[in-house]
Design goal:
CATH superfamily: Ferritin, core subunit, four-helix bundle
Helix content: over 70%
CATH class: Mainly Alpha
Order of helices and strands: HHHHHH
Structural class: mainly alpha
Largest sheet: none
Number of strands: 0
Length: 185
């Protein structure tokens, strides 16, 4: 199970790297008031981050119901909802169609890859409380890795970069929370 998840993570990382390599901004530096547009790969990346934040929230909701005595899942799922809302605002601003995403339906994803990852992570997390906390660590490390790649790519507008940096900082905080809970087990 863990090797399957690791392979999915490597695939996700490669997808983001490939998308980030084609990044370019379609605005005029001579005209500061020109509307900034995103390339299709940038839009795809932003959509992916939107669903990836939903993945984190949905896994934490699901595992939080199983391990209701552990408040880490409950607390962090509310943060993840704020992250989803922040990325949704960017998607709307940059005309990224998110209508297929069932935001309020836990465990359903447009991306087949994220759908499979959700199922695998929940399966792993239901094996034990310790495994559930490890799933939390895994998700936050994945988010940090993906966001770092996107932050380091060239060409994203400042508002998108700011949100990515805030999401990454939040993921570092969540990672510390899950690691702290693991150490107390």
């Amino acid at each position: 199970m863990k090797n399957k998840i690791k392979n999915q993570r490597n695939f996700l990382s490669k997808m983001l790297t490939i998308g980030a390599s084609g990044v370019a901004i379609l605005s005029s530096s001579a005209n500061a008031t020109a509307k900034v547009s995103l390339t299709e790969p940038q839009k795809d990346e932003l959509f992916f981050i939107y669903e990836e934040e939903k993945l984190a929230r949905d896994v934490y909701i699901t595992l939080g119901k199983i391990y209701s005595d552990e408040n880490t899942f409950g607390t962090i799922q509310f943060s993840e909802q704020r992250y989803i809302d922040s990325v949704q605002e960017l998607c709307e601003k940059y005309d990224i169609d998110i209508s297929e995403v069932q935001k309020d339906k836990v465990g359903y994803f447009v991306s087949p890859l994220l759908q499979t990852l959700y199922s695998d992570l929940v399966t792993q997390g239901t094996e034990s409380y310790y495994d559930a906390l490890e799933v939390g660590v895994y998700i936050e490390e994945l988010d940090i890795e993906d966001l770092t790649e996107l932050i380091e790519a060239k060409g994203m507008p400042e508002d998108v970069l700011n949100v990515y940096e805030n999401l990454r900082e939040g993921s570092y905080n969540h990672l510390a929370s899950f690691q702290g809970a693991l150490h107390s087990v």
